[in-house]
Amino acid sequence: MSNLVEIQGLVLRFYTYEGVVKALEGVKLNLIDGETLGVVGETGCGKTMTALSILDLIPPPGKIESGQIFFKGKEKTIDLLEQKEAFLRGIRGKDISMIFQEPGSALNPVYTVEEQISEVFMLHRREELTVAAIEAIERDAESARGGLRSFIYGIQRRIYRKMLKNPRSLSLRFLSRIPVVNRYKRRLRKEAKKESINILRQMEIPDPERVADMYPHELSGGMQQRVVIAMALACNPTLLIADEPTTSLDVTVQAQILDLIKKLKETFKSSIIYITHDLGVVAETCDRVAVMYAGNVVEVADVIEIFKNPLHPYTKGLIESIPRPGKDFKSIKGTVPSLINPPPGCRFNPRCPKAMEKCSNVKPETIEVKKKHFVSCHLY
Amino acid sequence: MGVGSRLREFRRSMGPTIRELRFSISRIKKSPLSIMGLAIIAFYACLALLAPVLAPPVPPPMGKDDPFMMWKDINIPARERVIPHPPSSVHPFGTTEGSYDIFYGCIWGTITAFRVGFLVVVGSLAIGLFIGSIAGYYGGIIDEIIMRFTDIIFAFPALILAMALIVALGRNLDNVMLALVLVGWPGYTRVIRGEILRVRSEDYVEAAKAVGCSDLRIIVKHVMPNSIYAILIMASLDIGAIVLYAAALSFLGLGAPTGYSDWGQLIAMSRNYIYANISSPMKYWYVYTIPGIFIFTFVLGWNLLGDAFRDILDPTMRRR
């Protein structure tokens, strides 16, 4: 088992007017090929930022100060943080893609479902679409009997062959800007649409042909989320980052979406980083769990191990605060500290029931307590 | 594929577009003011298109080779040419100072009004879109520099700045338009920047980034379509306002050259005749009333049309 993603010593800072927000402080995390890794923690402890770092999409004024993110690509392992923007654009949506929290706002209101999914195909799978389009032209050309039509097919075939050879050639870019002439692009769009409907069908959307022509606001939340997942899976990514994909959905739809993600993981053979604060979802879907607190990974273990034998006081607190029928609510006292002036030493020490003097002075090292069970706490 | 099935396919694919168009038309029909605005602008458009028929250019020596120059009636005795003459069969709207034909000036002035309005708005809009989207999308220091520069332009009263520019550039209609563009673009830039700031933080822009779109693609395909409506409405309202500005500049003697068909200029020529004499103060009413009505209704038409556009285009207003 090798690592698909390996994050090492990731430090992320936001330079704001109020001061420097120390959002991530040496995050260390790895994702094994083929697994589902749950990332849990309270709001504002850096789960989403860790995910966005992998895509190198940190919003300004954020800046990654140091660290490496190794990603095992198709040919070789690369450090994502050292790549050029153009290269990353080729990876985003193709090898690594992301599902956003709010399906309603993650879809552009002015485009139909199909147009938005097609965009992903057009961006990353042009070559396959071109090949399919050439085949369609050949078929049409055979059935055409001479005359103007076969002449047009002849021209189209030449254009598409050229497109296959060099999609960014100057003459093609010029042609695609001329009205009427650029109608040749319709074949490409048609192929993209076919693919989009295919992927919608895989999302278990009933009547995908009709849904494809609908606008996002015409769909229910669950349907919207399926479309977002379809967009993310369009290019068969090796890594799928799901940022709280079910938080805004009601429980029954949530179960459906979780089932879908599980099933799709098998068919698409993707690895998943699943960001959530819902431990129930984690138990349901994940193989391993990483617990984050205030920009640090405090505990990593297998999912069963985490629930049976939580070591870090924060993890214990999280598990205890799952509401259970018939029992009193328990919560972790206090709130996530301001990351402009985080507490010294262990960042959890002001809220920790077992805090010692050492905790407020020395930052704990990450140690492997058991096999594959890592924790950073002075208790161990 | 046969023609019939192609037609059916076309109908099916155009279905939603046609439905929306029908809805837009029904929206307009419901509001009488929108219809009025539409009618006024349609009327003016007809006037502009039919100008050579309604007011055929008069050959020299009375007219000029340029059809936009008003013709002078030299049949009027020389010493009476200075004062206006009331409407007659030769001059349906009368003549103004210098025996220029008011009817001819009003009709051909429509073309001038449309030209000034459209060119200035399109010019300002183009600059505003380009600069505003850069400022809004990239933010940071670029945004800061651009917005402070627009603040500098905002600091001057628009009309006075335009006057200064025209004086510096030289007095002709092209320079009037150029000056109005230079004064007008910061307004658009500011609105576009604001809209883009709003849209930029939307999740779908983030999502577009996450599927690997380039910056240009995001701005053009994802941000613009969501932010353009506010600016289009503003532009349609502005066409009328720009015509008012141009008229004001003409009135101050900083517009088109003397004798050019321009409503503002006709008003400027009537300046000395607003009050005629004590016995009949309104004796020369036609020299200022008629061009005034043209300007007034033209601006009113655009304002009403702008409101109609807002009802149709603005997605938040549309379904109310």
What does this structure look like?
The complex is a heterodimer of chains A (380) and B (320). Chain A is an alpha/beta fold and 380 residues long. Chain A contains 14 helices and twelve strands. In chain A, a hairpin with a 4-residue loop joins strand 1 and strand 2 (20-32). In chain B, strands 1-2 form a two-stranded antiparallel ribbon. Chain B has one domain: MetI-like (MetI-like fold, Orthogonal Bundle), CATH 1.10.3720.10. In chain B, helix 7 (173-200) packs antiparallel against helix 9 (215-251) and helix 10 (263-269) runs antiparallel to helix 11. The longest helix of chain B has 37 residues, at 102-138. Chain B has helices at 3-30, 32-49, 51-54, 102-138, 140-155, 158-169, 173-200, 203-210, 215-251, 263-269, 285-313, 315-318, and strands at 95-96, 100-101. Chains A and B meet through helix 2, helix 4 and helix 10 of A and helix 8 and helix 9 of B.
In short:
The complex is a heterodimer of chains A (380) and B (320). Chain A has 14 helices and twelve strands. Chain A has 380 residues and is α/β, with parallel strands linked by helices.
* Helix/strand order of chain B, N-terminal first: HHHEEHHHHHHHHH
What does the overall shape of chain A look like? Answer: elongated
Cα-atom radius of gyration of chain A = 24 Å
Look up the CATH topology of chain B: MetI-like fold
Strand content of chain B: under 5%
Domains counted in the coordinates of chain B: how many? 1
Structural class of chain B: mainly alpha
